[in-house]
From TrEMBL:
This is ABC transporter ATP-binding protein. CDD domains: ABC_NikE_OppD_transporters. Its main location: membrane. The keyword ATP-binding applies. It comes from Microbacterium bovistercoris.
Length: 263
């Protein structure tokens, strides 16, 4: 297993917000964490990245290829972050630095981990922008986030997460703020990049229809606990918990394949 989360507990100001979550992600597997707002899915992802907010603490176990991440020193965690584990955050407008060009931000992780020159890092940024199908990549890397559309900003966020070729990608509701057409394009892009690189994926969403497009297995969360864990096809065809049944009723994506979900 590349990622093993066991009995994860997260507390914020002595309030338990994640209560004993466990799941595993094998090499090359695509797993979904699904639940309504406040279910603990995003906090779980932040715990894996070592990016919990101030006042939050984690206990239990998060192992990445055998290395325990809870309690890992900041410098060691920084070496893993971006290089081995990448993350696409929910809202690129807030995740991107407004006063830095997008090319500089795409190349930042590469420069940190590979110590490339400024010129070489720019070439990597252009290559990454090309891979995520940004228009005129040689020009767009010199623009600032406010000069891009929402879909283009999300492509930049994906390029940033993948620039150093991590083995695991965590995508936290990467299409929530986009319209349905752009959402479908981003989902297809993300899936093609993950499959093409043989990466593992943890995809976070509140929409079971979206999950059906990108994951083979789903972990359903409510109030910081796992309430159901099954292949996505089973969640679609025979949901057991009331939470999953409610998510199924609320599914909104237009590209839903209920006959089998993602393979």
């Amino acid at each position: 297993m590349s990622l093993v989360v066991q009995d994860l507990v997260i507390e914020i100001d002595d309030r338990r917000v994640v209560d004993g979550i466990s799941f595993e992600v094998a090499d090359g597997e695509r797993l979904g964490l699904i639940g309504e707002s406040g279910s603990g899915k995003s906090l779980t992802a932040l715990a894996v990245m070592g990016l919990l907010p101030e006042g939050a603490s984690a206990s239990g176990s998060i192992r990445w290829n055998g290395t325990e991440l809870i309690g890992l020193r900041d410098r060691q965690m920084a070496e893993l972050r971006g290089d081995q584990i990448g993350m696409v955050f929910q809202e690129p407008r807030t995740a991107l630095n407004p006063i830095r060009t997008v090319g500089r931000q795409i190349a930042e992780t590469v420069r940190i981990h590979e110590r490339l020159s400024k010129a070489a890092a720019r070439e990597r940024a252009i290559a990454a922008a090309t891979q995520v199908r940004l228009p005129a990549p040689e020009n767009i890397v010199d623009r600032y986030p406010h000069q891009l559309s929402g879909g283009q900003r999300q492509r930049v966020a994906i390029a940033m997460a993948l620039a150093s070729n991590p083995r695991l990608l965590i995508a936290d509701e990467p299409t929530t703020a986009l319209d349905v057409t752009i959402q479908a394009e981003i989902l297809q892009l993300l899936l093609s990049l993950v499959e093409g690189r043989g990466m593992s994926l943890v995809f976070i969403t509140h929409d079971l229809a979206v999950l059906a497009q990108v994951a083979s297995r789903g972990v359903v969360l409510e109030d910081g606990r796992v309430v159901e864990h099954a292949p996505v096809g089973t969640l679609l065809s025979a949901p057991r918990s009331p939470v999953t049944q409610g998510l199924l009723r609320d599914a909104t994506a237009t590209l839903w394949r209920p006959e089998g979900g993602a393979s």
